[in-house]
Amino acid sequence: MTTSLKTIDRTRLRSLMQREEKRFADERPRSRELFTRAKHSLLSGVPMNWMVKWAGPFPVFVKEASGARFVDVDGHEYVDLCLGDTGAMTGHSPQAAVEAIIEQARRGITLMLPTEDSIWVGEELARRFGLPYWQFCLTATDANRFCIRLAREITQRKSILVFNYCYHGTVDESFITLKNGVAGPRRGNVGPPVNPAVTTRVVEFNDLDALERVLATREISCILAEPAMTNVGIIHPDAGYHDALRELSRKYGTLLIIDETHTICTGPDGYTRAHNLHPDFFVLGKPIASGLPAATYGFTAEVGERILKRMQLEDCDTGGIGGTLAGNALSLAVMRATLERVLTESAFVHMIPLAERFAAGVEEAIKAADLPWHVTRLGCRAEYLFTNKRPHNGAEAAAAADFELERFMHLHALNRGILLTPFHNMALMSPATSQRDIDQHTAAFREAVSELAS
Ligand SMILES: Cc1ncc(COP(=O)(O)O)c(C=O)c1O
């Protein structure tokens, strides 16, 4: 049972939802028309299955996006706080990326040969994140998969460890949760190749005793972790947690993969540098090429040496790490432009205070409505949760989820020109986001909570 059940009248919530669904449909005839047509060629009328999760009877079809805003096919303009679930944290189509795309596209897109941009990007990533060696692929999922394979190969250990309710992309090994203390496939896990309990151990974030018990088996090749969890709401690590985790992982010979695909919102050199972490592997995808498919993984010199010792020239293309388009000229040119001119230090100086403004506005509205909710923030990302107790781990955060309420909040926002991420209540700031955008959200949020609480 969620805390919000105490105060939210469900009958009222459902009638408010019906009102919002009607408004949504009435105001979007063109999106509805396209959705009807799409159902003939796209399963469920969407190009990717998770797009069915948007609140409302059909998804909003987009006409165009620029900066922090987009316009739908019915002519409505939206403040985009979803930003492609971090893929567009750069803002939509930033000028530097568009220029790089045009320039490189004229000069060749993919060759299976390196370009000089790859060196510039490798050097910049080393400067920012402190790891010497880098490789490139197309998605953060792939980067995580490759790091896991490499970790298993060089440690010659079979298992990996993840945290309960983590999300690292469509990585088979990571779709595992704890239910009454027993590990098994996560709810909704589609066609798992094996029960992930065979490949993976799972413990709660912030629980050092549980972590040590598993690491002490000396069977764990790597820990795959976000430095602060972001995919079940934001969960910050306890003070000293990362130092202890690193000490334990070294003690038991387990490698540490830090996945910064979302926590790059902390600052230009990630959570890793801001909090002085020392991972063996580092993963970054999504916004690194302003939303063009691109991702990277870096590792220490020691890991690099261990990898080279086990690689055979003849088999290096069929070892399970690859991708024909990986490291292509276009994505590297755009990564360079993004790192050089978009996700800069000064961009974060603009973005982080906006997230603070978002959090302050939401907090004030929650207080005024007297709801048992709270808001939390990590750099330029903020999120509200339907509980007044800050979750300390994945199970606590998952227990506070409220799908019905979440959908209402999202649809209410959408009808007032604001897009939140479809998966929880997350808002992200881009270099193009303005105070006016945030204030538009605060006003809509205040209206929603006062309607819910009255
Ligand atoms: C922390 C983290 N890592 C990796 C991924 C996977 O990214 P992609 O779907 O672009 O492969 C996600 C996606 O949400 C993520 O949140």
What does this structure look like?
- This protein is α/β, with parallel strands linked by helices and 454 residues long.
- The protein contains 14 helices and 16 strands.
- The protein has helices at 10-26, 29-38, 95-106, 116-129, 140-155, 208-215, 241-251, 270-274, 301-310, 329-341, 345-369, 394-399, 403-415, 435-453; strands spanning 62-66, 69-72, 77-80, 133-137, 159-163, 176-179, 182-185, 200-203, 220-225, 255-259, 281-284, 295-299, 374-378, 381-385, 418-419, 426-428.
- The strands form 4 sheets. The protein has a 7-stranded mixed beta sheet, sandwiched between helices.
- Helix 1 packs parallel to helix 13, helix 4 (116-129) crosses helix 10 and helix 11 (345-369) packs parallel to helix 14.
- Residues 85, 139-141, 144, 167-169, 226, 231, 259, 261-262, 285-286 line the site of pyridoxal-5'-phosphate (PLP).
Notable traits:
4-stranded mixed sheet, alpha/beta, binds pyridoxal-5'-phosphate, single chain, 14 helices, 454 residues, 7-stranded mixed sheet
List the helices and strands and how they pair.
Layout: H1 10-26, H2 29-38, E1 62-66, E2 69-72, E3 77-80, H3 95-106, H4 116-129, E4 133-137, H5 140-155, E5 159-163, E6 176-179, E7 182-185, E8 200-203, H6 208-215, E9 220-225, H7 241-251, E10 255-259, H8 270-274, E11 281-284, E12 295-299, H9 301-310, H10 329-341, H11 345-369, E13 374-378, E14 381-385, H12 394-399, H13 403-415, E15 418-419, E16 426-428, H14 435-453
Parallel strand pairs: 3-15, 5-8, 5-9, 9-10, 10-11
Antiparallel strand pairs: 1-2, 2-3, 4-12, 6-7, 11-12, 13-14, 14-16
The structure holds pyridoxal-5'-phosphate.
